[in-house]
Amino acid sequence: MKIEINHVTRYSYLESVMDSVNELRLTPRTNYRQSCYHHEVSTEPSASLFTYEDYFGNRVHSFSINKPHKEMVIKTKAIVVTQDQSSIAKFGLPYKGQLELLQGDQLQNRYIEFLQPTSYTEINEDLLAYSAQYPVDEEGFYAWAMSLMSGINSDFIYDPDATNVNTQISDTLRLRRGVCQDYTHLMIAVCRSMGIPARYVSGYHFVGDLQGGSADFEQASHAWVEVHVPGTGWLGFDPTNNAEVDWRYVKLGHGRDYKDIVPVKGVYRGTAKQKLKVTVDVRLLEG
Predict the structure, then answer these.
(1) Which residue range is the domain that position 127 belongs to?
(2) What is the pTM of this model?
(3) What are the residue boundaries of the Transglutaminase-like domain, all occurrences included (predicted)?
């Protein structure tokens, strides 16, 4: 499927600010499931862009605006062709073979970053108690990840007012509600508590045709989980929507948790009083 994404980030400041230094992680990746054919970035005020790849292979655009300004606008446009995840995962290695790979030094060393807890994915007694509800059995790790994804979706209530960008696992477990970031961090923490590599993915989710073909609804960036299924590789699972990743999902980047792939972050000199407005439009160009 060919998908077009227009993403506008607008910062408005009460007073003029200056010396603004920013990083963007808003470029769709090209991998086995998707290809980014076009991507453009513009800023207001205009700025020169410096591009590089970070440690995790995410494309980063950085720029500075030194002159005083009361508003900064970042616009990105991308065209991406996507497809469903490979169905080979359903017919992968038997459980014993998966377990041998998972416990081997080669896999442990290669994916150590995605096995260690972070401030967002802390492994504590409450997390371990929750994880115990989802033991791995002979069906293997793909079936287990699907079960965990469905379990989180049913165990928690989607509530955009319950949490914020700094919410951690202990808060999510206590509140039993949250947003995609919270669902994603929880599933990652459960995976890591069981020695299964898992990483945080940022991107977009096309839902236009699920809304009667209308684009008159609020869209936003999305987050989901990639789990490393031994013998198969990285596969995407979305506990927020209880869905295995398919053509609807456009991946921007991945990291250990949200902190590694913040779409827009920066610092500036001036007033702390600001307003942020993000507008995202995800359209299907060709089916």
Answers:
(1) 87-261
(2) 0.93
(3) 172-241
